[in-house]
Amino acid sequence: SGAGKGTICANIRKEMPNLVYSVSMTTRAPRVGEVEGVNYFFRSKQEFETLLSEDAFLEYAKVYDNY
């Protein structure tokens, strides 16, 4: 967070336009300006835990009581 990953990704995508950015899913509330499906996929904890039970994720982490 705040380490410049977005800038690095943008520069790489300029050189390799066929790359796509992986959008993460979270159970936290959206922050001002964040767009569903662009910055994150925002889901309830219940929705997220259903997906967990279906092995829908390659990886996940729980941070500050949110996924």
From TrEMBL:
Keyword Methyltransferase appears in the UniProt entry: no
Keyword terms: Kinase, Transferase
GO cellular component: cytosol
A UniProt-annotated Pfam family: Guanylate_kin
InterPro entries recorded: GK/Ca_channel_bsu (IPR008145), Guanylate_kin-like_dom (IPR008144), Guanylate_kinase_CS (IPR020590), P-loop_NTPase (IPR027417)
GO molecular function, one term: GMP kinase activity
Domain Guanylate kinase-like intervals: 1-67
Phosphoprotein is among the record's keywords: no
Name used for this protein in its record: Guanylate kinase
Annotated organism of origin: human gut metagenome
